[in-house]
Amino acid sequence: MSKAELKRQFILEQTEALLVREGGAGLSMRKVADACGISLGNLQYHYATREALLEALLASFIASYGALVQDRPFQPSGDLRRDLSELVSSGLELLDETQASRVFKELWAAAQQSGSLAREMTRYYRELAGFYAQTLRSLDPAADGDRINRAVSVLMPLFEGFCVTRSALPQDRNELAQIWATAIHATLIDADQAPHLREAT
To answer: For position 9, what pLDDT does the model report?
Structure first.
């Protein structure tokens, strides 16, 4: 890694720390420069605008967090409900163990004001949806594409919503994993295996 690349990485690390500490509203180029111990002009040499800085931070966050999600050890047991609970629990644990939920919440808020950030966020969501679809398909090979897509449509908003509402949720992480696994399981199983679901629809 070149000296310039190391400098940009350091700037992004300080930006992330500032974002977690003060939130997006408190993030300014001047504060980032001060946190890095460099001049504003030096910061702007690497990232000309606040939006460019946030775009780089989002790209870095997506790459690092995406790698953590995909590298998370997970061994299917063959029991679909149990495996779904483990999958959800692993995802929640990752959010609890890192600053990911706080960083993502602030970046998501910033994306609502920036077209380029919003496009990058959408690209990330699509990639994540593909990963979860592949994972769910490995857990339930008999599920058709429609059921896999429905399950992904349940799973992803739950994780994203957790980033925002976690402090107010009345259930702990283990209870949430059980509740969510039940909901996802209901979207995957065949209607013939669940007459009550068929009647409800």
So the answer is: 96
pTM for this predicted structure: 0.79
The gap from C-alpha 32 to its chain's centroid, in whole angstroms, comes to 24
Cα–Cα distance, 23 to 191 (Å, whole number)? 46
Q: Label residue 97 exposed, middle or buried (CB < 10 Å: 0-12, 13-18, 19+).
A: exposed
User: What gap in Å lies between CA 132 and CA 200, rounded to an integer?
Assistant: 27
The first and second tokens of residue 101, run together, are: 């939920």
Closest CA to 154 of 99, 93, 84: 84
Provide CB contacts within 8 A for 104, sequence distance 6+.
61, 65, 160, 163
Spatial CA neighbour of 86 closest among 186, 158, 181, 200: 181
Q: Hey, what amino acid is at 166?
A: R
In whole angstroms, what is the distance from residue 34 CA to residue 189 CA? 55
pLDDT tens column, 142-183: 899 999 999 999 999 888 888 778 778 898 888 999 999 999
Domains, in order of start, for the chain: 1-48 (1.10.10.60), 58-200 (1.10.357.10)
Rounded Cα distance between 125 and 104, Å, is 12
Contacts for 112 with CB less than 8 Å, ≥ 6 apart: 118
